[in-house]
Please model this.
Amino acid sequence: MKIGKRTRWMLAALLLLAGCKNFWNVTSSGGCTTNCPTISSGVFYVLNSNSGQVEIAGYSIVNGTLTALTGSPYSLASGPYSIAVAPNNSFLYVSTQSGIYLYTIGAGGGLKLASTTPISTEFAASTMQVDATNSWLVEASGSGYLYAIPINPSNGTTTGTVQQITLAGITAHQLAISPDNKNIFVALGGTGTAVIPFNAASADPLPTSVGAPIAVKGAGGAAVSVAVDPINRLLYIGETLGTSGSSNTGGLRAFTYSSLSGTPTEVTGSPYATGGLIPASILPTASSAYVYVANATVSSSSTGNVSGFAVTTSGTNYSLTALSGAASTGTTPAGLAEDSTGAVVLLVNSGGSPDLDAYTFDTTTPGKLDSALSSSTGTDPVGARAIAAAP
Model:
C-alpha cells in the first residue's frame, strides 16, 4: 500500500483546550474534604493547548501532592491534537499542527525531545496509539485515512514506508488497538465504528479494505469514544443518542470481542445509559472488573461526571451493572486514565474548575470512585486536551 486531523469528539466544540504553567497549587474545590487518603501515583502526562500554555505537563502524585517531573512543562511548537505513550515506556509521541514529534522518556518519566524535526509532517493525527510490539504508531486523521507508521522499538524513530487505508468517515474521534494486537477500532462519529484487522508482524499490517462500520444505535447519534476490555472480552463504544429519553441520552455499547470477526454481537442490556449526553472517554480498568465513562456534558449541569459499571462474566456471557453514584468532575471532561499502580483514576477537564481530578477506589463500596485530589494547573481553564499514563 502507498502512503498518502483529530477533530476529537465534542462534535467540533471540544477542540479548543490546554495549558499548564504555575502548577501545582492543589485546591480543595471539588476535591476530597474528609477522610481523604494520602495517595501516590505513577507518572502521567497532560496535553495542553490554550494560548500561552501549549505544552506537555508531566507529573506524578507523591504523598498526596502533585509533583512536576524534571523539566516539565515541555513546550510545544504549535497547537496539539493527541498524545501516545509506547507500551515499553521508552518514548512518547505528540501530534501537533506542525507534525508528530518524538520524545524519549528518561528515568523518573522526564521527557527529552528527540529532534526539533517532527518524525512526520504529512499526518496531523487526531487520535493515535502505539501497538503492543512498539513497532507501529497507528493514527487517524480528519482526512479520512488510517495510517500505520513503522517505528523502531528501541528508539521510536520511523523505519520504513507508512501504510494507509481509507476510512468510511472523515471524522475520526478516537481509536483503540485491541490488547491482543489483532484489531484496530475507530470511532467515526455519525458513520459508526470501524473494525479493522491488524497484523503487526507484516510489513503492511493493514488490510486492503474493511467491512462496513458498526452503525450507531440512535438516529442522529455519533460514535465519539472507543475502548477494549484488557483481556479481550468486550468492545466498548460511547455514543451520543445511544439511549432513549428526554435528557442524558449518551449510551455505552458493549459487544463481545469474539464476535467481531463476523456479525458483531451486542451484550444483553446494551446500550447502557451513561448519565450524560456525550460519553467522551471510556476507561476499562486493568483489573477488568470495572469500566468507567466520562461524560463531557450532562443535562441541566455546568459540569460533567464519571459513571461506572461492574463487569460480570457467566461462562461466555457478559453483562454490565451500573454502579450507584456518579463521580463529580470539572467542566467538560476530556480524558480518563488509570495510573501504573492501578490504584488511581485520573481525569482532565478541558473547561477546568478544576483542570485535574484524581480518584481512588472506595474501600467499602466496590467500584465506587472517591475524589482524592483536584487541582487548578495554571490559569484556569488551561484547556487540558488529553491525558496519558505511563504503563
Q: What stands out?
A: DSSP finds no helices and 30 strands in the chain. Confidence is low (pLDDT under 50) at residues 1-31. The two ends are 32 Å apart (CA to CA). The first strand starts at residue 25 and ends at 27.
